[in-house]
Amino acid sequence: MDAIVIEQFGDAEVLRPGRVPDPPSRSGWTTVRLHTAALNWHDVLVRRGLYASPLPHLPGADGAGTTPDGEPVVILPALFWGAREAAPAPGWELLGDARHGTYAQFVSVPDECLAPRPAGFSWAEAAALSLVGATAFRALVTRAELAAGESVLILGAGGGLAPGATAIAKAIGALPFVTSSSDEKIAVARTHGAVAGVRYTDEDWIDQARAMSPGGDGYDVVLDSVGTWGESLRALRPGGRLVVLGASQAEQATLAARPFYFGQYSLLGTTMGSPADFRGLFRLVAEGRLGAPTIDSTFALSDAADAHRRLESGRAYGKIVLLIA
């Protein structure tokens, strides 16, 4: 089959078209003929070698395609989550880390990691839904228990997660606000449901963010995918919840203990999404409360390197998708 093969870790140039064997058939797994694969920042980290994937390797977590019976499906890339909903089992993994992913004509996944393609979604939109959608659903609904009427500040409006998180917050009746590096991205975020936004490049962005929150007291929830916990806590109202699901800017955070416990804050870690989160996400879609993901651009599978350059440029808003067949 045709695929994008990484022979060594490095910059986007290491993403090269190649030929590899089709995945083998096995009981309890389904081989999906992929039509699209959506990019995530996680793919960049895999390409750089952060997860020490075995080489040669096929990256990619998100995908949509057809089963051998012709059923159109979307792939849930969180494999082997386990029986406990509170956290994944020790042996869980993300598709495209230890085993070949979706930058290929075919991929094999456990049967529980498939869901029907939502009605009315294009192949690109279907591929773009799963990882970001399930991750944002788990962060906001399962972990933060964000409720209708509450406010949430979503850091980084231009990132791959933020548009999906904004849409999910709006779908459940919450009030999403955003931060971004540019007024243009804030304007785009507002057209997709954000109430308002501030530039995090401004020195007083936290004061601005608190001032625009309902009542000016701070947010019920802050969604932090960048690792700036101290700043995020300052944007919360007393008793608010900080949900952490990434570290794109900082790998470590230092918090002052007394302000934290006197503020009655909650600090919640989360990652990816379980099959139950996946089903919850698709219920929102089926009920007509959540529409298709925002697509920034599409590229041919053979142009995966250019797609990664687009992702790393920081200019994209929404998902970047590879067209396979």
TrEMBL record:
Pfam families on file: ADH_zinc_N_2
Matching InterPro entries: ER (IPR020843), GroES-like_sf (IPR011032), NAD(P)-bd_dom_sf (IPR036291), Zinc-ADH_QOR/CCCR (IPR051603)
Signal peptide per UniProt: none
UniProt keyword terms in alphabetical order: NADP
Domain Enoyl reductase (ER) residue range list: 10-322
PANTHER family: QUINONE OXIDOREDUCTASE
Protein name per Swiss-Prot or TrEMBL: Enoyl reductase (ER) domain-containing protein
Native organism: Streptomyces malaysiensis
